[in-house]
Amino acid sequence: MKIGRKSIIYTARLVSLVLTSFYLPLVCVLVLTALFTLSYLSLLPLPYKLTVLAVVAIFTIVLPLFFVITHLAFRLERWTARELGQKSLRMVPYVFSLAGYGSCVWVLQSMNVFHFILSIVIATMIVQIACTIIHLWWNISTHTAAIGGIAGALVAFAEILGFNPVWWLCVTLMLAGILGSGSMMVRQHTLPQVVAGFGIGFFGAVAGIIIF
Question: Is 193 exposed, middle or buried (0-12, 13-18, 19+ CB in 10 A)?
Fold first, then answer.
């Protein structure tokens, strides 16, 4: 029983390194790139795909991470242990991340990329804004929000592109179960926080992709 518990926790930690809300746009674009081979989107040239992936990675991961590290390095010596625990200071990564998403939307629009690619970033912004607001008073799970966003994106794009998402959803739900179980086992989140995170991610992604 102990081995099973530890295995789930270690696996959840490993998966959480990739499937965080901050990496959600890149993960979704990568999944779409894999799906390109299943439709007319396979006609897109490889350099174009790599350029889009690079833009998304730079503005949603690299630049926000750079500014967060720079900000922390500048402020760390001035913060006390009590100040580091304040929720307002823990909002810093979310603020830089949202700024990166806004810049990414602007750059992708200037590149005239397909709207459904642009909608991924917009959907992620919706999920991030919702999680940021809720996180001010409740420790909602952003990891399950991220995996919920991937599930929502799969459902939305299955409707738009006309493919069967069953196997993709099975894998996604399995990863969601691992993340949620591991998070509760280490007492990082409760069941309502895990479920709420997944729901916000799922419906936020569906709304962002289909409506916008």
Answer: buried
Cα separations in angstroms, 23 against 29, 43, 119, 181: 10, 26, 15, 21
Give Cα 99 to chain centroid, integer Å: 15
**pTM for the whole thing?**
0.76
Distance of CA 49 to the CA centre of its chain: 20
Radius of gyration of the chain (CA): 18
Reported as a single tens digit per residue, the pLDDT across 46-83 is: 788 788 888 888 998 888 888 877 766 666 555 554 44
CB 182 within 8 A of CB 8: yes
- pLDDT tens-digit readout, 18-32: 566 666 677 777 766
pLDDT tens digits, 94-121: 788 888 888 999 998 898 887 777 888 8
In degrees, rounded to 5, the angle at the alpha carbon of residue 74 between the alpha carbons of residues 71 and 80 is: 100
Measured at the alpha carbon of residue 19, what is the angle toward residues 16 and 22, in degrees to the nearest 5?
110
- Residues 154-207 pLDDT 10s: 888 888 877 788 888 998 898 888 888 878 877 778 899 999 999 999 999 898
Q: Which amino acid is at 26?
A: L
**Spatial distance between the Cα atoms of 182 and 176, rounded to a whole number of angstroms:** 10
Question: Any residues with CB less than 8 A from the CB of 23 and at least 6 apart, and which?
Answer: 60, 61, 146
| Residue 187 one-letter amino acid | R
Q: Write out the two tokens for 131.
A: 């999680």
